[in-house]
Write a structure and sequence with these properties.
two-stranded antiparallel sheet; alpha/beta; 2 domains; about 375 residues; five-stranded parallel β-sheet
Amino acid sequence: MAIKKIVSDIDVVTAARQRIKNAWDTYPKIYLSFSGGKDSLCLTSLIYDMIMAGQIDKQKLTVTFIDEEGIYPSMEKNALNWREKFMKIGVPFEWYCLPFKQVCTLDSLSASESWITWEPGKEDVWMRQPPPFAIRKSNILKYAGEMNYQTFLERRCRDGLSLVGLRTAEAYTRLQTIAVMDLKKDNTHRFYPIYDWTDNDVWMYIKERKLEFPEIYMHLYEAGVQKRNLRLSAFFGDKTTQGLRWIAEVQPDLWNKIEKRMPNAYLVLLYWESEMFARSSKKRKDLEEGVADANVDYRDKCLDLLYRNTDKYNINHDTLARLGDWRSLFVRIDGKARQKHYKKMYESILYGDPKGRDRRSLIISVFTDYAKEIAKNGNK
């Protein structure tokens, strides 16, 4: 789908304030989804300052924080500080330590792509203890691992509107989601006031307002993580695992806890830049895009993987459970996809796609390239 971008005559901070004010004027209840990361920090600061300035009613607001057990100490410190600030002005701050199903990219050898935070019966290997004020039980979650925290928050906050610090600059699939979003037609309960902020906007806002942010960002940047990839979430997620390398070097005590919780964590140190984590070195990329890749029919490999000889492949359990989605996608794009698309599909199934990002991006890539090809041929 083609996306039309409109240039505004106001800055992103002013636009975000207007969106927040409109949300407050429209919905009886507002939930702020706080994560402790840089984007969430900016949105939280905007809302807090607007409350203190009397521009929005604090009585409508509830802050929710999902403690994922495996979080950086500076991230926990940041969350504690903001909890104290909101509690002082009478705004509820719900700190959840519940057994949610989480994405894990380290368990492919165990035929799994998930783990459970704060899992009952595994208290001896928890990476840390929950704070005494944390919410440990909920009627929404009936058993450990029943749902992920996203589903939980959807149900918890369905009587109002959740404000989330999601930005389209971090992923093209997010841009697609925002572009087609309709709060009324889609019956969605999430809204993204800073969706159009760039990385520079985020860091400039933090700098100009002298906001305290988790110091782990600086350490990751010093360790070589590019600015656009500076994301904080659960240690074992598909986009954040690289941070484990830094922890092993400078925070050995924390690393020992991580390895005790997830024994396969050592694989990050050994094979981070390899195919195990769907990474390609420059040498491998050059080879695959050259003669070595020219003789590979990835469409046929996808057919073999999805239909003919599925059992002979080592596909982890979570991906295997979603194989029907991949087969449907193959049918949908077949005839429009090119070798690079089939290759992406083949590797995503083998490496795992726990959050479905590869499937979504593949759909966009195939139909975008197909539309360009038709337009090019039509102009000839």
